[in-house]
Amino acid sequence: MKQLKVLVPDNYEGNICTIDDDAFGETSYDLAPVVEPEYRKILDYGFVGLVDYMGDDMSIVNAARVSYGKGTKKVNTDEGLVRYLMRHLHTTPFEMVEFKWHIKAPIFVFRQWHRHRTFSINEYSARYSVLDGEMYMATQENMKPQSSNNRQGRSADILNEEEYTAVCSVVDHIFEESYQAYKYLLGPNEETGTMPPAPDAIQQRITWCQDAALKGVREARKLALENETENPYPTEESVEGLIRGYYAQNGVAVLDDDFPGLARELARKVLPVATYSQMYWKGNLHNLFHFLNLRCDPHAQHEIKVYADAMLEMIEPIVPWAVRAFRDYRLEALNMSRMEIEAIKNIFTRQVANGIDVVSELDMLMSDMGCSKREIREFVSKII
Q1: What is the pLDDT of residue 18?
Q2: What is the pLDDT of residue 250?
Q3: What is the mean pLDDT of residues 22-43?
Q4: 289 within 8 A of 149, measured Cβ to Cβ
Q5: Which end of the chain is more exposed for a tag (fewer CB within 10 A), N or C?
Q6: Residue 207 pLDDT grade (very low, low, confident, very high; cuts 50, 70, 90)
Q7: How far apart are CA 174 and CA 201, in angstroms?
Q8: In terms of Cα–Cα distance, which of 105, 110, 163 is closest to 135?
Q9: Residue 9, CA atoms < 13 Å, CB-side half-sphere
Q10: How far apart are CA 150 and CA 159, in angstroms?
Q11: 39-129+274-331, CATH topology level
Q12: Is residue 295 annotated as part of the catalytic site, yes or no?
């Protein structure tokens, strides 16, 4: 009999499970989760949950010291090393930390999300399961017109109360109709065995066909009376035939309880991209920072930015050094073109030529902002 030793904190009260295995004998595993999942509500029906992670800031430091060896001894502190790595785009050590997320978001948000192809994704399958009728509706604050100078964004203006109400009425109607159609196409209810009611649009067309047929019957009867026809009253069969004729002309038919139901992979086609889906999403910190750098940007679409902002806050207690470095050198930093750099160099070169002690002033300013001596020397070498 072999035992697998599981290392857990002293104050951890986990559930130990014994598993019988023919090859290895009896082995004990700790099946309780070490990480307590953290969830935050996002948008109207969405959420983001950090369900598991591996590593922390020291994982980055240790990986870098193995990789760089003596080259890192000039860095005085562990946090300084993390900042150095971020500043000089040495990204591999950040790949030693991983996060796993559980996310619920509208499908159109996932359309953007899935462009980040360096993550492992497992999304809720609408081929296998039935989707809920939850669909995203923007608040008035975020329901805005198209921007006049940005083809992929919205303007700063918001709709007034009447406009917002009108838009919501249209969108709500589409949401309700599409989900009615979805349930209708799926076929009889599993518990009752009866068909759900047809969508309102179909019901309206059915009503219109019936009303048109009855109108035709009344006109035929009136004509028969005027011509003194022997039997002016139409038969039941003739009325039904007339209704069926109108149905055929207008492409209307009603499904009965014998309908087997459309395959879920086909029925879902009527749902809008505002429908909520769920996924598990796992990847390393380097690629997560790339995602956050794009999606926390002020120009990112609001509906994905709110997820990214929450995720950045949720990982900060786990990798605080890395997050601070990420904010300083990537998220809140600016890229500069060659021409912009040349312009700054020329300005500082002229100041030095005029006897201005630019280096001392930069040293004082950047020291007050928390920059290391090495970081200040690197900046000075770039511009002077």
Answers
A1: 40
A2: 73
A3: 65
A4: no
A5: N
A6: confident
A7: 10
A8: 105
A9: 7
A10: 18
A11: Gyrase A; domain 2 (3.30.1360)
A12: yes
Q: 75: pLDDT confidence band, cut at 50, 70 and 90?
A: low
Token pair belonging to 98: 């991983």
What ranges do the domains of the chain cover?
1-34, 39-129+274-331, 200-254, 338-383
- What pLDDT, in 10s, does the model give residues 226-266? 676 666 566 666 667 777 777 777 777 778 888 999 999 99
Share of the chain above pLDDT 90, in %: 53
Report pLDDT for 34. 56
In angstroms, the Cα distances linking 357 to 180, 361, 366, 373 are 74, 7, 15, 17
Q: Which of 65, 87, 117, 295 is catalytic?
A: 295
Measured at the CA of 85, the angle between CA 84 and CA 89, to 5 degrees, comes to 120
How many whole angstroms separate alpha carbon 61 and alpha carbon 63? Answer: 5
E-only strand ranges, 108-257: 120-123
Q: Is the dihedral of CA 262, 263, 265, 266 positive or negative?
A: negative
DSSP-derived secondary structure letter, 146? B
